[in-house]
Amino acid sequence: MGLKRLSSGGTSRSLLLPLKHLEDDQQNDGYHHISLQSAVFSLSTSVVGMGIMGLPAIMVTVGLIPGIFLILLVSFLTNFSINILLRYSYECKAISYTGIMVHAFGRVGLVFLKTCIIINNFGLLVLCLNIIADTLSGSEASSVHYSGVLEEWADGQTWWNQRTAVMFLTTVFILAPLVFVWHTDHLEISSTTSMGTVILFVIIVTTIFFYKLISGTISMPKLFPTVHPDTSTVLSLFTVMPILVTTYTCHHMIHPILSQLGNESDSKRVITISIRFCAATYVITSAFAYILFGDDTLNDVMGNFNAELEVPYGTLFKDVIRLGFALHLILVFPLLKFSLHMNLDSLFDQSASPTTVDNSHFFLVTCSLLTAAFLGALSVPDVWTIFQCIGSTSAVCLCFVFPGSLVLRDQDGIYTVREKLIACFLIFLASSVSVMAVFGDIYNLFT
């Protein structure tokens, strides 16, 4: 693949992203190709992330049928926008999302893109820590305390299973060793393990659902939203789209993962398989979890699994689900940090040497990011607020606004009229939903 031009003016190497086929006299940094399966696991891990936790709650707002429809709609739009990026990168010979934006919009496009990636990934790091803490140490919703796994094991709260202690110990002794990696190919095993925990979660939730369905203990879910003629109810319907967009945001990870494929012709297969797998996972877990818990479904669905499931081996299932999900987020964390680190380096110091060589710089930035994420999680413990903030700002830009703008600009004349119409819809959808979601949050603050 080699070094490819970002524009007619020069070349660029993405930090933390090793180039293929280096000459023999160049530095050997331990890089190797990854298989199609590994690429699917890595991309799916970066997509499915925290969506499993947040999406069941949207069913409470919009109902079962609209909820499923929206999940599938956003998956289609995500696949479309990713293919836009791939086609554009082939035309302009760019090796990254950054290269595409530089080619189309110059320095302004680069700054906007990297700012959105930094906001998005840092928010997701904070979100990861919060959900891990909620799962292990417990959480509160509507003045009701939901005990975590460690709290149940200790028969109550102690100093070591309190929220702050759990976050600190997890960050220092578990996450820190994982984030000191230099390339995504080093995360191959963790990505595979992470997807294994997702599949296990889906299997257990499906098993519980069918057991309760057969035993007749499931109530009829709300199929459509209950709309009252008041402003807060109407505005609440717009809060679900930012959550959905956040759960599918992976566009800035596409090129780092696909660039390491041994066979470049597998790129589209990786995208298609990953998006379809994630969409199916979201539909199954969201629908089944909502049917199981009804309108009592929490913003963090893990809290619902703290209650008695009323199935054989219910306690075992609860622990496996919560511990498995915590493990999944722990393994997602390095991928998010990888992209955040890469973009911070190139935004603030484009002349900096690659972090694979400058170990002191790599160590300093990594420690700073971990510390900032830890403090952010302590300051903003509400996962729903973080989901909405990310989804209505950086995520909609990365997923819809930037790809749609590329199609409308169409410098090289490669897009069809149909694609331009879809691009217009992407930008309109992202803009309108973002404005309404932000307005809704402001409205709720003063009412």
UniProtKB/TrEMBL annotation:
Pfam families in the record:
Aa_trans
Q: Which GO terms describe its cellular component?
A: organelle membrane
Q: Per UniProt, which keywords does this protein have?
A: Amino-acid transport, Membrane, Transmembrane, Transmembrane helix, Transport
According to the record, the segments passing through the membrane are: 40-62, 68-90, 111-133, 165-183, 195-214, 234-258, 270-293, 320-340, 361-379, 385-409, 421-446
Q: Name one GO molecular function term.
A: L-amino acid transmembrane transporter activity
The record gives the membrane topology as: Multi-pass membrane protein
| Residue stretches making up the Amino acid transporter transmembrane domain | 33-445
InterPro entries from the entry?
A: AA_transpt_TM
Does this UniProt record's set of keywords contain Transmembrane helix?
Answer: yes
Q: Where in the cell is it found?
A: Membrane
Q: Which family would the database say this protein is a member of?
A: Belongs to the amino acid/polyamine transporter 2 family.
Recorded protein name is Amino acid transporter transmembrane domain-containing protein
